[in-house]
Amino acid sequence: MAEKTALITGVTGQDGAYLARLLLDKGYTVHGVKRRSSSFNTERIDNIYVDPHESPTRFFLHYGDLTDSTNLIRLVQETKPTEIYNLAAQSHVQVSFETPEYTGNADALGTLRLLEAVRILGMEKTVRFYQASTSELYGKVQEVPQRETTPFYPRSPYAAAKLYAYWITVNYREAYGMFAANGILFNHEGPTRGETFVTRKITRAVVGIQKGLQHTLYLGNLDAKRDWGHARDYVEGMWRILQHDEPDDFVLATGETHSVREFVELAFAEVGRTILWEGAGVDEVGRDKTSGEILVRVDPRYFRPTEVDLLIGDPAKAMAKLGWKHTTSFKTLVAEMVAADMELIERESWRNDRSAR
Ligand code: NDP
Ligand code: GDR
Fold this sequence. Notes:
InterPro entries: GDP_Man_deHydtase (IPR006368), NAD(P)-bd_dom (IPR016040), NAD(P)-bd_dom_sf (IPR036291). The protein has helices at 14-25, 69-79, 93-98, 100-120, 157-176, 198-210, 231-243, 260-269, 316-322, 330-347; strands at residues 5-9, 29-34, 59-63, 83-86, 128-134, 179-185, 188-189, 217-219, 225-226, 229-230, 250-252, 258-259, 275-278, 285-288, 294-298. It is an alpha/beta fold. Strands 3-2-1-4-5-6-11 form a 7-stranded parallel sheet, with helices on both faces. The chain starts with a strand and ends in a 10-residue tail after the last helix.
C-alpha cells in the first residue's frame, strides 16, 4: 500500500477518536486537529496518543480551528494528507439555536475554508475529502425511509449550516474534479458519546439513579424517533466512502427507527427496572413499576423551536457499492452504553452538568 496520511478535524470528538484508531490500525499516519481549551480536552484519544519523546508514533496532534483559514492552509501544507476527514463541527442541534452565527461559521464556512485550503495549495487532484454530512439535512419529513435522493428540508441553524457544507462539497467535486464525498450519517452513538446528546444523557441518568446519585431524568420530546447505530460501524463507513473508486454521497444508517421513549425503557431495563408511562405532553411521567417512584419527567426547556420528528435511513446504496452494513443492534448499543456508564460511575467521581441541554 502506498503510504497514506490522514488529516482529521474534530479528532477529540466521538467520531474523530474512533476514526483515528481505525486508521492507525490500517497503517495510516494520522494528524488530528484539536482546539485550544482551558483544560484537557483529549480524553477520548489519550489511549492512542504516544508522547513522541518516548517512542516513535504515527499519531500527531495540532492546534487548529475551522474558523481560522490561515491555520487550515498551514495544516494542510505541513501535513500533506492523502485523505482529509472533516468531522469538526458545533454538532449540537439545540445549541445551534442559541449560537446560530457561530454554528454557521464553523460548520458551513469552516468546510469551505478547508476545501479552499486544498485548492489554494494545488492539492485538489491528490487529496480525498470526506465531509461529515447528516440525516438532519432531511429535517421535516418528505419521504421515508430517507435515502440519497430524498429532498432536504433543514430544521435548525445546525442543519442549515450542514446543508451549505453538503453542497459546497458537491460543488468542489464538480467544479475542480476533487475527490470530495459526503457521508450522510444517521445518529450514531457509543460509550464516548457527548454527555448532552439524548442517548448518553439517558444512560448516564440510569446509572446515576441506580446508584442513588440522581433522582430524576428530565427530557424534552419523548416522541422523537431516530435511526440509532454504533459510531464504531460508522467510521468504517467513512473510510470506505473515501476508498470507493469514484467520489459519491452515501447514506449510512441501520434502517430501523426508535423513539426516545423506547430508548429510556430499554436503558432502564438494563438495570432491571421497568418504566410505566402515565399522563401526556408536558405532564407525562415515567414511573418505576416496582417502587412507584417517578424517574422520568418532561421539561419543556429541552423542546426545540423546530423539531425533526422522524428519521429512518435507507442504507441500500452503501450496502451495494461499499459493502457496508451496521453490525451493532439497537439493543446491544443501549446495553453497551449503560454498562460503560456503570463502569465509569464505579471508577470515577460522578459529575453532573445541570445546565446541560
Ligand atoms: P462531537 O461533537 O463529539 O465532536 C465534534 C468535534 O469538533 C470535537 O472534536 C470538537 O472539539 C470539534 N470542533 C467543534 N468546533 C470546532 C471548531 N470551530 N474548530 C475545530 N474543531 C471544532 O461530534 P461527533 O463526533 O458526534 O460528530 C462528528 C461529525 O459528524 C460532526 O461534524 C457532526 O456534526 C457530524 N455528525 C454526527 C452524527 C452523530 O450521530 N454523531 C451524525 C451525522 C453527522 P472539542 O472536543 O474541543 O469540542
Ligand atoms: P440529534 O441528537 O438532535 O438527533 O443530533 P440528540 O441526541 O441531541 O437529540 C435526539 C432527539 O432526542 C430529543 N430529546 C432530547 N435531546 C437532547 N439532546 N436532550 C434532551 O433532553 C432531549 N429530550 C428529547 C431531541 O429533541 C431529538 O429529537 C445528533 C447530533 O449528533 C448531530 O450532530 C447529528 O448530525 C445528528 O444526530 C444526526
